[in-house]
Amino acid sequence: MTTSILSKEEIKELVLKLNEIGAVKLGEFKLKSGIISPIYIDLRVTVSSPVLLASIASMMYKTVYAQSKPELVCGVPYTALPIATGMSIAHNIPMVVRRKEAKAYGTKQLIEGIFKEGDNVLVVEDLVTSGASVLETVRDLNSVGLTVTDVVVLLDRQQGAKQELEKRGLKLHSVFTMEELINTLVEAGKLTGPTLELVKNFLEANKNVVVPLPSSAPVRAPFVSFQERAKLATNPTANKLFQLMASKKTNLAVAVDLTVKQEILDLAEKIGSEICVLKTHVDIVQDYDQQFIKDLQAIAAKHNFLIFEDRKFADIGNTVKYQFENGVYEISKWADMVTIHGVAGPAIIDGFRESIKTTGAGLLLLAQMSSKGSMCVGEYTNQMVEMGKSNQDAVMGFICQERLSAMSDNFVLMTPGVQFNSAGDSMGQQYNTPEYVIKEKNTDVIIVGRGIYKSSNPKEEAIKYRTASWSAYESKQ
Ligand SMILES: O=c1ccn([C@@H]2O[C@H](COP(=O)(O)O)[C@@H](O)[C@H]2O)c(=O)[nH]1
């Protein structure tokens, strides 16, 4: 259901006009989230139809200003800029402009225009899928003291944005929804047969394309190669991993979440040549013994990869020291790196210090998680980054979904929740593609689990993920 106050006839006229000018495209399209969609709405073409553009701006104005009257408008760069400009000029509402590249040049303002702290801004976007682009703009507006309560879009693709925005106190107003667009095209005989089925199935399967909200400004920092970052690394394992990635030309880590030791060893042997890191959850291995670790270490030495035990320690320093060094697993004796949560506070790191001083192992702080509704967001994430920066000898990097401005080049940024062809699983996992994670979110290493170990040909699949993530890294140069 739309929140639009426009009549069905008005919406019909607009949809058919958009279809006529080629704004509705059918085929195979990669969305910002990395998902392949059979339908793509390209509103960039509206700049070539000024009368239509003016009427879009007017319809969006009517849709939102009937309910709310913010003091300023701001278009999400770039497609929505002409729409926001149209609204601003036609209705004499001052506009502010968000710069996408501000950080790269230092002196330039992130938000251009005249405003005062506390002014309420209406965010204008052409269409929403996950809501990620809108949230980036809201974040930058908030960072200069502006408030946002309302967002207006021409089209809501109905793939989770409304709910994601609502969770963050933002009301989404849309002129029409994807359902209305499709119904209009069907009624007019413009969308039929197998294509219609494909579109319907896609929309049903991808109702929630959720991209986590950035906690602070993501960095558009100059590219620094892994070779150079090895020299900056403050933790020995971070240094080793940067060097290994640069020489082996791979930034692929594989999560081998298998429960039988021989299956893990067989997979490690198969994919060892493609990876920089093999990630384990030893507590799921039903026949775990010390020989398993010896065999895994031999394969790691043969194929030159590091071993990462994803234990996610979270207790007080004294307890995690026992958990790390003792018990059945004696993790400190063999893991090159382990994950820790920061809920217990920074003293948790003291539980590892003595042991890793000898081995040089690295700690990875969970700054963000890939799962839906994760509480590792906002101020918590910022605190984790601070915890890492205050313990750079022990902390080698972060488990995160994006590179944040406070994350310096000496840290390795590793991102789980990666698959080529799925948006998520039934238990809250959310996936992005290797290209999106490495290029758009600017992290260093992808962690792929089921995308590889559940495949009928894990070696072939590992090569595909390795190639995609390494090309994405190289394209940043
Ligand atoms: O935020 C997090 C932190 C860790 N993980 C771990 O990564 C793998 C992902 O496996 P997939 O099969 O690719 O979903 C798994 O071992 C998790 O424990 C994560 O997914 N998200």
UniProtKB/TrEMBL annotation:
Pfam families: OMPdecase, Pribosyltran
Any one biological process term the GO annotation gives: 'de novo' pyrimidine nucleobase biosynthetic process
Pathway entry: Pyrimidine metabolism; UMP biosynthesis via de novo pathway; UMP from orotate: step 2/2; Pyrimidine metabolism; UMP biosynthesis via de novo pathway; UMP from orotate: step 1/2
Residues binding substrate, per UniProt: D257, K279, S370, Q429, G449, R450
Active site residues per record: D310 (for ompdecase activity), K312 (for ompdecase activity), D315 (for ompdecase activity)
UniProt keyword Mitochondrion, yes or no: no
Statement: the UniProt record of this protein carries the keyword Glycosyltransferase: yes
CDD domains (alphabetical): OMP_decarboxylase_like, PRTases_typeI
Residue ranges occupied by any Orotidine 5'-phosphate decarboxylase domain in the UniProt entry: 251-465
EC number(s) reported in the record: 2.4.2.10, 4.1.1.23
Alphabetical keyword list: Decarboxylase, Glycosyltransferase, Lyase, Multifunctional enzyme, Pyrimidine biosynthesis, Transferase
InterPro entries: Aldolase_TIM, OMPdecase, OMPdecase_AS, OMPdeCOase_dom, OPRT, Or_phspho_trans_dom, PRTase-like, PRTase_dom
Family statement: In the N-terminal section; belongs to the purine/pyrimidine phosphoribosyltransferase family.
NCBIfam families, sorted: PRK13809.1 (NF010382), pyrE (TIGR00336), pyrF (TIGR01740)
Protein name (Swiss-Prot/TrEMBL): Uridine 5'-monophosphate synthase
